[in-house]
Design a protein that fits this description.
The complex is a heterodimer. By secondary structure, chain A is mainly alpha-helical. Chain A has 6 helices and 2 strands, in the order αααββααα. Chain A has a two-stranded antiparallel sheet. Chain B is globular and about 50 Å long. The chains are: A mainly alpha, B alpha+beta.
Chain lengths: ~140, ~160
């Protein structure tokens, strides 16, 4: 629901449009878009503005994000950036890393001590590349 | 040649890793046998017999309590002249200079992993940010296409540009 609201707000933010154009833009079913717009209107996330032109006929109604809608979108984007993104391989890797830590304890090696050793190796790797950076050596292979 | 997370601080963000990945290109079984023998003498636990077709051999260094992965067929890596030309010498201690995979091949190796994690993508993004102009773009693109990670590389480049 939140995702759908954000998608609609993003679409109308880029270019305010009517319902039909929005349906075309999103490639969603018309009923779905209308139902979502109705709920969003009730929630105060969107407003309909009449687009008065010189052409004859009924003025077109443009969907526009309300102040609340704009605030919602900003907050939603901020939250999205904070989302922890992982997949099943990250979880497997975390379990593997935990098993390694257990192994260290079995061998009476302090995981904290090991962490500092690894950090020092990482810093050495970083610094050694900085020194050698410009002197990349090609092999005699 | 070192590959994997241990090389990351050289090209990208500083992140520690508990295990060590090493790539080897051995063509004769006898040489592999000798290598296994030497490692066993040096207190390495190797649960398998030498096999040139094994993509990876898992070792355990009992003395230092470290898991080591010896890769004979690392994902996204072709043992050719170009790979070797792009290797980097890392003098990580007074008496220890090691070869490390080059930045472009590091990227492809990470992206082509069959068990790729979101962490690997973040690692690559950090290399793209830090090595921005130093990367051999033509080589990187060619390798990315070869290993079918060109689209993913493009997405990460975009992400890196936004950073």
């Amino acid at each position: 629901m939140l995702d759908e609201n954000a998608t609609i707000l993003n679409a109308i933010n880029q270019n305010p449009c009517g319902v039909r154009e929005l349906v075309e833009k999103l490639h969603w079913k018309t009923e779905r878009v209308i139902s979502l717009l109705k709920t969003m209107l009730e929630q105060g996330l969107i407003e309909f503005h009449e687009n008065i032109t010189l052409y004859r006929g009924r003025p077109k109604k443009l969907i526009v994000a309300s102040t609340l809608g704009s605030e919602f979108l900003e907050t939603f984007d901020r939250c999205q950036r904070k989302t922890i993104q992982i997949n099943s391989n990250d979880i497997k890797s975390a379990i593997y890393q935990a098993d390694l830590a257990k192994k260290l304890e079995q061998y009476h090696v302090s995981p904290i001590q090991r962490f500092w050793e690894l950090t020092s190796i990482a810093l050495k790797v970083r610094n050694s590349f900085t020194v050698e950076d410009s002197a990349k050596t090609s092999s005699n292979f | 040649m070192l590959i994997g997370g241990i090389v990351l601080p050289a090209y990208g963000q500083i992140r520690t890793t508990q295990d060590i990945d090493v790539a080897i290109a051995v063509k004769e079984i006898e040489i592999l046998r000798q290598l296994f023998e030497k490692l066993r003498k040096n207190n390495f636990e190797i649960p398998t017999t030498p096999n040139l077709d094994a993509a990876c051999v898992y070792l355990f260094d009992r003395e230092n309590v470290v898991d080591v992965e010896i890769w004979q067929q690392p994902d996204g890596v072709i043992f050719d002249k170009q790979l070797l030309q792009r290797r980097t010498r890392l003098p990580i201690a007074e008496n220890l200079v090691v070869w490390a995979i080059g930045p472009e091949d590091f990227i492809i190796n990470k992206l082509a992993r069959k068990d790729r994690r979101v962490q690997d993508e973040a690692d690559v993004a950090s290399v793209l940010v830090r090595q921005k102009d130093a990367l051999d773009e033509n080589y990187l693109v060619r390798r990315a296409k070869e290993f079918e990670v060109f689209g993913l590389l493009g997405a990460l480049k975009k992400k890196a540009q936004e950073t």
